[in-house]
## 1
Amino acid sequence: MEIIVLALVIFIAFMVFRYYRQKNYLKVLTEDQFREGYRKAQLIDVREPQEFDKGHILGARNIPVTQMKQRLVELRKDKPVFLYCQRGSRSARAAQLLRKKGYEDISTLKGGFKGWTGKIKVKKNSF
């Protein structure tokens, strides 16, 4: 029983540490804040291609988080990077990877694409 409690305490401490560390480099933006800046940034949808094809923010490029390491050459370090996924967890993982690779100006959409009310583009025959 003590081992389970100890494991739980360690897990919670790790999650709190990760949250505060991530808060130092990742800006979580409301939709209005995101909309204000994404045209001047590299707008990246980190969802899988089939999700992207069903609908994405107008002007976004699709670089799935699963391919991010291999496709870093497509991103510039001197321009802001705006990330989003369906709800926010994958974009946070992508931001963590970008931070480790030296990217500094990283923002993510609070609530992800699920909460987006702006213009979207849908690829034909995606349903």
## 2
Amino acid sequence: MTALLISSDQRRTHRAQAHPLKPVVHIGADGLTPGLIKETDAALNAHGLIKIRVFSDDRDHREQLFHDLADKLNAAPVQHIGKLLVLWRPVPSKETAEREDRKPGPKVVKVVSFSKSGNHRATIKKVRVLGNQRLTAAGTLKRKSSRQSSVKKKSQT
């Protein structure tokens, strides 16, 4: 994979957005290990723009790490200042197709009915409410009715 290329305007805006961020990944003496690359990839997927701290005093080594990470993770190198590296990659869109297919599932609801005399304890019973049911004010289950719409709206369709 190759590193993403971004314009200088995009680089400037990403640098400004990265300013308040704390380093998410720390690179130690081991350098680029598979575990470090995996964690950096997960951080880029979650945040898109991350800071990385390198605990090495050799500037050329840090520069090499910076470009290697950008190449391996298909990210854009934004900034290398001191021991901090800033990488950016667009956040992948979350899969919403699975969520759209889901319907509301059954819920367990507690129904409290108080005694009429006031001298006895309230009775509590747990009721399972399905997706096509509703709980009335009296504590009974009813089937959901379709929403009423006006005559005007029905004639427009």
